[in-house]
Design a protein that fits this description.
single chain, about 160 residues, three-stranded antiparallel β-sheet, alpha+beta, about 40% helix
Length: about 160
Amino acid sequence: MPSRPKPHELVHLMPGVLVRNDVLNIVDKIRAYDDRLDVQFLDPERFPEWGDAPYRIVEKCKDGFTRVVFSVWELNDTVLDRIRMADMASTDVLARLDANNAAVKMNANRRFREQVLGEAKDMLIHAMANPKTSYKLHNDQGDLVTIQDDKGVTKRAGK
């Protein structure tokens, strides 16, 4: 049984064409993710345009045309991540946005409850420790709060 090539070993695809094994693995993963996607290699000898990335991720569209999705300088796992993030069919962007907004709202409500409950706890602790039958204090908003045995709790706006 032949040994499996190491990630950086060169593999002969056809006469005169050598490719690193890790690059072939990425190409296989891209094709497995979506059979409409493929990878093109732009040979610098045949495409001497300066500044062009050597690899293009392309999509075979239903209309028969092959369109470039994006170009990359190196084929590695970040290419797969980029494909997954751009895939609108498998990623529901609206659901992710709604979930994020719900988490932000829940966090804001939690902080508000903690503030209100903390204030009420402070008032109750001070009132219980006070030997008098009435107790006055200012809350966080500056309102004067009066706690009296016979009348209960009253609040006046402002200081």
